[in-house]
Design goal:
Elements (H helix, E strand, L loop, with lengths): L2 H20 L3 E3 L2 H4 L5 E4 L7 H14 L4 E2 L9 H9 L8 H8 L4 E3 L3 H5 L16 H9 L3 E7 L6 E2 L3 H8 L10 E3 L2 E2 L11 E4 L12 H29 L1
Parallel strand pairs: 1-9, 2-4, 2-5, 3-4
Antiparallel strand pairs: 5-9, 6-7, 7-8
């Protein structure tokens, strides 16, 4: 690892460790992940970025030095500092040799199927899973025979007040690389200038789910998709009262 990549890694983990304190971060059901063989960690995407999964990475790195490998939007590599971060945090960009090596190494893989469609919505749409018919994550799980570990966090949709549908605006305005054009309000103004609101964030991790489908069996994948999205929505719905009590 190069010096810049190493520095980017330290900065990334340092920032998210700070955010763990800022957001009074908690994890419920961590044993479902720690006791599992290599798995696809499939999460709800809070706004505008997956705060909880970044903090989960930092928490696991602080605990045993290893953390799940996250799939990052390829457009991030167009920004120089993020190119160093991709190396430093061993982010994955696609299903290529690096993905196969990560699975062979026993690493968990993080993916958020909702992406910016789910994460960059307005305040009218909160804590509702919105993955459409995106099945790529299930094809990935089936190809590598990975169980799926569902995750969702309470608090993530309260970090900023979404003012528009960033995904739709990005499409309408022809933003490059499918990036969103999202306006979010924090305590000090617009994102990303403003920090997030200091809300408590709790990640809920569900038990592993087997994917009994071939990568090209759309009907079976759709059935699995329904089960996974329902499991993630349950984590959002059932975890909310507990998270609010702890906050």
């Amino acid at each position: 690892m190069g010096m810049r990549a190493s520095a980017a890694r330290r900065a990334w983990l340092g920032y998210w460790n700070l955010m763990r304190r800022y957001h009074r971060y908690r994890v419920v059901g961590l044993d479902n992940l720690l006791g599992c063989r290599p798995a696809l960690v499939v999460g709800y995407h809070g706004r505008p970025i997956a705060h909880d999964l970044c903090m989960l990475q930092a928490e696991l790195a602080a605990g045993n030095g290893r953390f799940p490998r996250a799939i990052m939007h390829r457009a991030a590599t167009s920004i120089p500092v993020f190119r160093h971060l991709v190396e430093g945090m061993a982010f994955l960009l696609d299903d290529g040799p690096a993905m196969a090596a990560a699975v062979a190494n026993g690493d968990h893989i993080i993916v958020t199927p909702g992406g910016t469609r789910e994460g960059c919505r307005s305040r009218r749409h909160r804590y509702r899973v919105d993955w459409g018919q995106r099945l790529g994550y299930l094809r990935l799980a089936a190809r590598y025979r990975l169980p799926i570990v569902p995750t969702a966090a309470h608090g993530v949709d309260d970090t900023y007040i979404g003012l528009n549908d960033g995904y739709a605006w990005g499409k309408r305005l022809g933003a490059p690389a499918g990036l969103p054009v999202w306006l979010g309000m924090g305590p000090a103004g617009l994102w990303p200038i403003s920090p997030p609101f200091p809300v408590a964030i709790t990640t809920f991790i569900g038990p592993p789910m087997a994917v009994d489908a071939a990568p090209d069996d759309r009907d079976a994948l759709m059935a699995a998709h329904g089960r996974v999205t329902a499991a993630v929505q349950r984590l959002l719905d059932e975890g909310a009262p507990a998270a609010e009590e702890w906050a």
